[in-house]
Amino acid sequence: TNGSMQAQIAAMRQLLGEEETEAWLQGLLDNEVTFFGGHTDVRKAVGAGEFALGLVNHYYYHLQLAEGSKVGVIYPDQGDGQLGLITNTTAVAVVKGAQNVSAAQAFVDFLVSEQGQKLFAEQNYEYPLLPGVPLRDGVQPLESFRLAEVNVAEAALDSDATFDLMEKLELP
């Protein structure tokens, strides 16, 4: 099951409630939406013209555009009174009991360094964590969007209920 999809559903449950989220997901199923194993498959299918649209994180749009596909992007829920854009967060940690803690910590330090954040921004069209690290050309600043107010910690703690909903609907 795709981690971004799980995070989106968890955020929707928090913002819309269980019933409305379930109804939205059921609407996808009723319309026979195609689920892929990951966003790369979605962007490539849309880029090849196999599908008119796909739901992906912003950087997949930019990656497909960079490959020469004639694709566009729509950022949902940007109007007055709408939820706003749901954003994902990424985390890194050193696993308790790791055999080489110093190497693991050095890797974490690199990821959150200016050099590491530049790589994320330049290679993957990601939003850097550090202020002052420039966005890749074409990536709109987060400040230009209406963002949904999601409590990430709460959504993470409620992950079992999100999985339960996904299983109930038999989502991949």
Would you kindly provide a written description of the structure presented here, covering whatever features stand out?
The chain is mostly helical and 172 residues long. The protein folds into two domains: 1-87 and 147-172, 3-Layer(aba) Sandwich (D-Maltodextrin-Binding Protein, domain 2), CATH 3.40.190; 89-144, D-Maltodextrin-Binding Protein, domain 2. Helices cover 48% and strands 0% of the residues.
Query: What oligomerization state is this entry in?
Result: single chain
What count of structural domains? 2
N-to-C order of helices and strands: HHHHHHHH
Task: Kindly report how far apart the N and C termini lie.
Answer: 6 Å
> Structural class, please?
mainly alpha
Kindly report the CATH topology of the largest domain: D-Maltodextrin-Binding Protein, domain 2
Share in helix: 40-55%
Shape: globular
Specify the CATH homologous superfamily of the largest domain. Periplasmic binding protein-like II
Uncertain stretches? none
User: What count of helical segments does DSSP give?
Assistant: 8
Largest sheet: none
Task: Write down how many β-strands occur, each being a DSSP E stretch of 2 or more residues.
Answer: 0
- What is the name of the CATH class of the largest domain? Alpha Beta
Q: Please, what is the average pLDDT?
A: 95
Strand content: under 5%
What is the level-2 CATH architecture name of the largest domain? Answer: 3-Layer(aba) Sandwich
- Rg over CA atoms, rounded to whole Å, is 18 Å
